[in-house]
Amino acid sequence: MIVYIARRLLLAISVLFATIVLTFGLFFTGPAKDGVAYQICGTKCTNQKVHDINHSLGLDKPVVEQFGTYVKGLVAGRDITNDGQVTGHCDAPCLGWSYVQSQSVTDQVKQVMPVTFAIVFGGMFIYIPLGLLLGVVCGRNRGSPLDRFLVGASQLISATPYYAIALLLNLYLIFTWKVLPATGYTPLTESPGTWFKGFIAIWVIFGLFASMTYVRYVRAFMINTLSSDFVRTARSKGISERTVVWRHALRATIAPYLTLIGVEVALQLSGSIFTEQVFNVRGIGRLGLDAISTNDLPVIAGTVLVGATFIVLGNLLVDLLYVAVDPTVKLT
Amino acid sequence: MTQTTTPPAGEPGTQRRPPLDPNAPVVLTVEDLKVQFPTEEGLISAVNGVSYQVKAGQTLAIVGESGSGKSVSSMAIMGLHDPKRSRIGGSIKLDGQELVGASQAEFRKLRSATAAMIFQDPQSSLHPFKKVGAQIAEAYLAHHKVSKSVAAKRAVEMLDRVGVPNPDRRAKQYPFEFSGGMRQRAMIGLGLVNDPKLLIADEPTTALDVTVQAQILDLMNDLQREFGSAIIMITHDLAVVAEVADHVLVMYAGRSVEHGTAQQVLANPRMPYTWGLLSSVPSLTADVGSDLKPIPGNPPSLLNLPGGCSFRPRCAYSDRVPDNRCATELPEFLEVPGEPGRLSRCHLADPAAIFADEVAPNLE
Fold first, then answer.
1. Residues near A103 by beta carbon (within 8 Å), at least 6 away in sequence
2. A188 interfaces chain B, CB cutoff of 8 Å
3. Is cis: bond before A93, omega within 30 of 0?
4. How far is the C-alpha of B61 from the C-alpha of B54, rounded, in Å?
5. Are B129 and A228 inside 8 Å of each other by CB?
6. Which domain CATH number covers A318?
7. d(CA A111, CA A287)
8. What is the signed CA dihedral for A316, A320, A323, A329, rounded to 10 degrees?
């Protein structure tokens, strides 16, 4: 088990290294690299000015050297220089130094992560049980009016762009009907009550939307499992149908469901841009989006790397959890 | 189709079976059982009026190929057909209780307690994520008001009785840690944990290694002697019939076509379908390279069964019946004169003679 985790972590590091090389390569050698200078000097840019700015930021150094500095910063931290002058220090893991904000990317990510975590993990409390519950009910009563309604609704909702639904619900539930309190981020440490209130609508709307996909997954798993031999054996024991469904069939459904959720959660952690944009809270998705619009290369690369880290760790976590729910799987 | 022993035709003996006790109490009486499944294409008639009886301590083998209705009729006894998707008619009397029309709650009370079922594939029939001991204990707990530890002890005891070595340790293992034969033993232990009056075994040896098949059949014979249960053995394997059955019911396309003691049916079958079954058993003494003799054709679709005898399209003897009766008239399931309990469904005037002259010499 420990050997397995160590091996997986090693693998994770190599995946992340590849991500670094790719994002770094794409942004710092591609056509976007002069974008920073243009962002700064705007219409007054001359070739000389662009060159000067690039020089002051160290962007004219060989790419390999820049990359070396970047990786060193990730591992050990580094000084930030402007025109040869040390202007700041970026602690490890240094994800870079934002051109626009004059701040370390790591600090920026740290500022927005509580928002993203709150959205993703809070939403989980809604969609995991809801998806499971509705999925089991549908799978058990396949073909019933309730099943048809839920499957139809879930298909319709999943087929509609999330931002459209989120915007509409945001508009009606919060502003027109005032069923849910307005959203906004207050740090948890400042006022837990306000923090909670600012997230309620996000959790409900995001959770409901996300659960719609899972309803159909769980329903399909359930239908499959309910016709399996071991469920027939369970029925032939003389135990109640409720026990058969919730203890036997569901037990076998949990493992694939978990895999699904784990991968999805990792994706959400790496950027729930729509949710943040629609509900006006700033998480890692918005951070990345803003960086793209201002050509803030270090921030873009930093958010990509953080996102990739979540996905890699999420997959590892799924594998570990899988061992807990499926005794036939041994990690070696 | 795998065989456990040499073809049974030459040794239709039931030496392994104790002599039949005519006074044994009747455990199960099935009369004119019909099981139908309404589908979008039409009504599927999986079982079309089957009748039989099983007595305590005796084994009835129900023989037939896939789709003959042998499993479907037995699942009806357990109430395992979804009431919303099936129609069941006729009468099933288990231990005096009428089961056709019984509620799920009534079925729940007798499942495992009065009638238990062992399934074909022990690999898929046990819950993959639950410990074997716990799975057996659960069935005991469903019918006994005892503590979990008492039930767990009972589970270990059952594993011991069905010949699982180290039952204490094995009870705490998962099915995937068992071999196929051990899993089926555990399955039998699960079936017998509540000492049921009737045990239905649905092809319990089909998914097993040939060497393990015989062990499992021996075990079932031993346990039947010990527990005194009535057994319904569903199989397509005539070698299994020779090994364990007292009586045989041959089914074809949802109908019974032949019934009698194992001795009678194996030695003097009176229906061309049974002859086909016997002839298709691979022989150990035949020349190497000689072809297997399958029954030509396929079983009919159970959707809108044709009139007449269902076996007619595959029957090589139907032209010996005058007036094309095989195509127009369903033969009745009639008792053979002078042999009570011996029934067959065939228009042939003297099937015994045809079997003796034309079929039997080609067996072996």
1. A97
2. no
3. yes
4. 10
5. no
6. 1.10.3720.10
7. 10
8. 30
List phi, psi (to 5°) of B338. Answer: 85, 0
Residue A231, domain extent: 106-325
Closest CA to B126 of B153, B83, B164, B99: B164
Give CA separation, A204 vs A135, A156, A214, A218, A324, in Å. 18, 18, 15, 20, 29
CA-angle at B156, arms to B154 and B158, nearest 5°: 70
Chain B hits for A327, Cβ within 8 Å: 129, 174, 176
A78 domain-assigned? no
Three-state SS letters, B283-302: CCCCCCCCCCCCCCCCCCCC
> According to the model, what pLDDT value does residue B11 have?
44
Both tokens of residue A220? 């399909």
In a domain, A252, yes or no: yes
Q: How many CA atoms lie within 13 A of B321 on its CB side?
A: 22
CA distance A232 to chain B (A): 8
Give contacts of A235 with chain B, Cβ < 8 Å. 80, 111
**A85–chain B Cβ distance below 8 A for any pair:** no
Measure CA B131 to chain center.
Answer: 28
Reference B235, options B216, A223, A245, B289; nearest CA is B216
- pLDDT given for residue B12 in this prediction: 44
**In the predicted structure, residue A218 carries a pLDDT above the cut 50:** yes
Tokens, residue A17: 């290294």
pLDDT of residue A96: 86
pLDDT number for residue A246: 94
Angle at CA A156, nearest 5°, toward A153 and A161? 135
Looking at residue B220, its pLDDT comes to: 93
Looking at the complex, report in whole angstroms how far the Cα of residue A234 sits from the nearest Cα belonging to chain B: 8
φ/ψ of B249, rounded to 5, equals -120, 120
Question: Biggest alpha carbon distance in chain A?
Answer: 85
User: Which of B113, B116, B127 lies closest to A248 in CB terms?
Assistant: B127
For A173, counting Cβ atoms within 10 Å of its Cβ (0-12 exposed, 13-18 middle, 19+ buried), the class is middle
Q: Looking at residue B7, what is its pLDDT?
A: 42
Residue A321 is assigned to a structural domain of this protein: yes
Spell out the domain ranges in chain B: 123-195, 272-362
Residue A215 in domain = yes
Scanning B43-147, the segments in alpha helix (DSSP H) are 70-78, 104-110, 122-125, 132-143
Residues of chain B below pLDDT 50: 1-14
The model's pTM: 0.84
B128 at A interface, C-beta within 8 A: yes
Structural domain tally of chain A? 1
Q: Find out whether A28 and A66 touch, Cβ atoms under 8 Å.
A: yes
**Quick one: which of B60, B61, B58, B62 has its CA closest to B18?**
B58
Residue of A nearest to B178 (CA): A328
Look at residue B129 in the predicted model and tell me its pLDDT.
93
Confidence of residue A67 (pLDDT cuts 50, 70, 90): confident
Residue B332 tokens read as: 């009745």
Tokens of B248: 């045989």
Specify which residues B52 forms β-bridges with: B30
List Cβ neighbours of A70 (8 Å cut-off, separation of 6 or more): A20, A24, A96
